[in-house]
Every structure is written in structure tokens, then in C-alpha cells.
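re: ur question from earlier - yeah i can do the single chain one, its not a big deal. heres the input i used so u can compare w yours
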Amino acid sequence: MEKKSTFLTILLFFITSSAFSSFDKAIIGDFEPDWFSVTNLDKSGIEFLNSRSVGYLKKSDGRCTGFLISEDIVMTNHHCIENATLATSAKMIFNVIEGTTRNDWEKSTYECKTFIGNNDLLDYSLIRCDGKPGKKYGHLTLSETDADEFDEVYLIHQNCDYKTNKRCYRQKVISRGFLDPHPKHKKEHNFNHTADTLSGSSGAPIIGPTKNTVIGIHYNGYYENQNRDLGRGVINSAMKMNLIVKDIREKFPEIIDEISID
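and the output i got, formated as C-alpha cells:
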């Protein structure tokens, strides 16, 4: 796969202004998103097994992506679940994938009403689900290694290119990309990446393929003003998981033994 560090060259074909704006998420550079259905992955491979722990987070004011970090704890973004009141409407659906029906979705739905806590600065939130879905779908391992030490990444999220096809449904897909030194909104607690996303990908795990552990949680993207309607942008951003793990150890020590950390 050609490294997406060349995406700016491609993007210049589509833009006439250089003013940046914040956006929920962005498809980087190319007109067509690079993601594909997880059903195309090797069913015995680690990427497919990791994808099983990721789901469609349904809530009263919209949708996000979330992922299991224990048998029953889901991590997503703070801006997805901002408080305990919003958590009362939260449900995780794990089988919204290509080729499934609403009946399949209902069978893989778990209520996740218990609010554990969150952190606005690091943009993560923790909720607990009924029924221990992790026993069926597994859970991901969180990394304490600084994301800056990685290069290639992949991201599993619930989405489709609804910007060009409003009738598509938000199935589980995988995007591949790279960490990128793009300076836009780069701070100590986050990193930029080139894996394609759109709004609804919030809360998706960024996974480093070396150990297949979660090195970040996707939360934002940036676009050129005139490309907003198409969701085409220049960079996406994620919060560093090693800092989130540190925060969980300090603020929620009662759950730390339930979580897999490397």
C-alpha cells in the first residue's frame, strides 16, 4: 500500500483554498474511502478477531463506535457519552456487518447503561454493559507504549460513505493508514493519522499491527472548507492510549484488573 504521506499532492487537485477547519472525521485525499468490510478479512486472523470486539454504539442523540476492553466494559469517546444520563440510552450492537439483517443486529445488542466515568481532555468514556458481551466477542488489549513509536496503523469502525450514498448502512469496516507528522492540532496527548473515517467513527480503536494492541482512540479530523459536504479532508486525530491507561489507573483503579494492558 502506497504510504499516504503523498495524500497532500492528491488533495491539491480537489481544493482551491488552504484554510483548515475542524470536522468530525475525514476521508483523506482520495475521493473513494480506502476502508473495506471486515468480512473480507481472514476469519482466523488477528485483525478479524479484533474486529469482533468493536461495535455500533447506539444512543439517544446519535451513534458512535465503541470497543470492548473487558468482558463488559466499553470504551468510546467522551463526546459520545458525556455523562451518566446519556449512558442510560447506550446500546452496543456487534453484528452490524456486511450480509447481516436487523434480526442479526438485535441478537447482538447489549444495553450498556452503567456509566463508569470519562475524561474530557483525553476524550474517552467508559460504560459497562449487561450480559458480558466480551465472553462472546472478546476484548481488545490496551497499549502502554507511546503511539509515536509506531508507523502503520489500522482502525476498525462502523461506517459507510453516506456523503455520496445516503442509502448505505454503517457496517463494520477496517481502514489502514499511517501516523503522520502533520502539525494540525498536534499536542502531547494526541497523534495524527491517515486512516479514513467519517462522522460515526468516533470512539474507534487505533491498533498498531506489531502487537495488535490499541495505541489510540480516534476522535477528530480536519478538512478544507469547500470539501466539508463530501467529508474529504487532510488529516485525522486520535488520543494516545498510554495516557488514557495512566488516567484510568489514577481515576478508576477499581476496574484496572478487569482490563488487558500490554
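The longest strand covers residues 213-224. not sure if urs matches, ping me
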